[in-house]
């Protein structure tokens, strides 16, 4: 929204000046300036309400999850109690039962027991081997380095300080935008759905800044064909004192990003990025 001086018609810099830079007329009695400031204030209040609504929705969504966890824990406790009771009963009666069976079947029982033990041991050994091969290690990389897991690759190849459409960040904080790419590196179609978080000082989480380039935002849940990638931007509210942050994507990717020498870019000056 452009604002012009009532006296000389010059375009006014409402964000940085208090009077017309050409004729010196103050902004106090300028109706266009008042309308601009009221519109900006309305947008900021609307943004805050949207943030509160999202936070309330998030809090509400966590309550059923916590209830499910509690129910699951109770069910697990009951199963453990039943298992312990069964084991105690077996330990008490097993010697008598085994001695009777051995006295009746003798050598036949011994042979069957040996064969069963060998087969069971081979099965357990094979299961342990399969579980070990399926275990993945956490991939820790730096900015502009690719993390490779068994299913996908992930990279943060762009980071800069910016503003969003609703205005600047609060005092002591800054908006930091990250450009992220994820690619399906398997031979099959994959549904990738992973949590994305930003932390500093080890464990302090950063809030997501909504309103930055929402048409090209990074999707944490996406279906990708073999060899196909997806990319986009995500923006977080980071303390200006933070020297670095860590982006976590799912359980197996951690990206360390240095913030000590950030460039500043507005949303209009950014360029689109192709898929990986």
TrEMBL record:
Chain segments annotated as transmembrane: 87-112
Transmembrane helix listed as a keyword: yes
Alphabetical list of InterPro entries matching this protein: Immunoprotect_excell_Ig-like
Keyword hit for Transmembrane: yes
Biased composition annotated in UniProt, kind: Basic and acidic residues: 38-55
Location of region: Disordered: 38-72
Protein name per Swiss-Prot or TrEMBL: DUF4352 domain-containing protein
Organism (species): [Eubacterium] siraeum CAG:80
Lineage: Bacteria, Bacillati, Bacillota, Clostridia, Eubacteriales
């Amino acid at each position: 929204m452009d604002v012009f001086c009532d006296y000389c018609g010059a375009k006014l810099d409402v964000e940085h000046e208090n009077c017309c830079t050409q004729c010196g007329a103050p902004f106090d009695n300028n109706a266009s300036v008042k309308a601009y400031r009221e519109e900006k204030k309305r947008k900021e209040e609307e943004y805050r309400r949207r943030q509160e609504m999202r936070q309330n929705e998030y809090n509400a969504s966590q309550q059923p999850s916590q209830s499910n966890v509690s129910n699951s824990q109770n069910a697990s406790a009951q199963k453990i109690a039943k298992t312990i009771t069964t084991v105690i009963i077996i330990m008490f009666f097993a010697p008598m039962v085994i001695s009777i069976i051995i006295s009746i079947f003798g050598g036949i029982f011994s042979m069957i027991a040996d064969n069963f033990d060998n087969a069971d041991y081979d099965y357990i050994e094979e299961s342990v081997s399969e579980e070990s091969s399926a275990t993945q290690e956490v991939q820790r990389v730096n900015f502009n380095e690719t993390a490779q897991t068994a299913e996908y690759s992930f990279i943060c190849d762009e980071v800069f300080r910016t503003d969003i459409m609703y205005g600047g960040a609060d005092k002591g904080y800054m908006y930091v935008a990250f450009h992220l790419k994820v690619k399906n590196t398997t031979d099959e179609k994959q549904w990738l759905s992973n949590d994305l978080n930003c932390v500093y000082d080890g464990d302090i989480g950063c809030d997501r800044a909504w309103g930055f380039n929402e048409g090209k935002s990074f999707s944490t849940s996406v279906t990708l064909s073999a060899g196909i990638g997806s990319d986009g931007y995500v923006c977080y509210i980071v303390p200006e004192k933070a020297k670095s942050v860590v982006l976590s994507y799912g359980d197996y990717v951690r990206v360390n990003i240095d913030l000590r020498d950030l460039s500043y870019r507005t949303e209009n000056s950014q360029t689109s990025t192709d898929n990986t």
